Amino acid sequence: EAQVTQNPRYLITVTGKKLTVTCSQNMNHEYMSWYRQDPGLGLRQIYYSMNVEVTDKGDVPEGYKVSRKEKRNFPLILESPSPNQTSLYFCASSSYLAGGSYEQYFGPGTRLTVT
Amino acid sequence: AQSVTQLGSHVSVSEGALVLLRCNYSSSVPPYLFWYVQYPNQGLQLLLKYTTGATLVKGINGFEAEFKKSETSFHLTKPSAHMSDAAEYFCAVSLKAAGNKLTFGGGTRVLVKP
């Protein structure tokens, strides 16, 4: 089954404690990205990757890091989480050709609470 | 930069009634347009998309949307609401020049009353 998986699904942590949210896709997609969802703001892109070892900032990258060492994995790293990073996080993947018309497949989400 | 506005953060409809969700975008060039649905505790699922060609697009679960360039709109409709349509709906756009990046509206939560 084609899918995007994220772990963990729920996480409660304390300010400053480094954490990693994993994302994996089994569709051999080139493009992967992370979004955060906040009430009334919809989803906003944090980082994206167009292929292995190619990553770039989205609209709200402050406080986050990513890496893309393998095509299927795209972890999101919060080195020093703060309460304003409490949010619902989604990983997404899609095929990529110049144009942007490809459907993005979303993971089930990770609900993060930073106290 | 493009932006997306969804009018109404909450919409309540009766079962069997028309569902109309409004989406307007701002972009200097024609974008690609998407509607996604999010059911409780789940990720986003694509309902439909417009890229080129026919401006009336049909999607899954009986939804359709019409791209109106002159109005910069992409409103989503369904003739008859079902209880299972209760969810949050997101309009999104992407530009050719921006690759696969999606810019989302704030979302509209639909409540279906029996």
Structure at a glance:
The complex is a heterodimer of chains A (115) and B (114). Helices cover 0% and strands 50% of the residues of chain A. Chain A has 115 residues and is mostly beta strands.
Poorly predicted runs of chain A are none
How many β-strands of chain A, per DSSP? 11
Rg of chain B (CA only): 14 Å
Please count the beta strands of chain B (DSSP E, at least 2 residues each): 11
**How much strand of chain A?**
over 45%
Number of helices of chain B: 0
Name the largest protein-protein interface in this structure: A-B, 28 and 29 residues
Distance between the termini of chain A: 36 Å
Q: Could you tell me the strand content of chain B as a percent range?
A: over 45%
The span between the termini of chain B is: 41 Å
Please estimate the helix content of chain A.
under 10%
Largest sheet geometry of chain A: 7 strands, mixed
What is the approximate shape of chain A? globular
Main pleated sheet of chain B:
6 strands, mixed
Average pLDDT over all residues of chain A: 92
Structural class of chain B: mainly beta
- C-alpha Rg of chain A (nearest Å): 13 Å
Order of helices and strands of chain B: EEEEEEEEEEE
Structural class of chain A: mainly beta
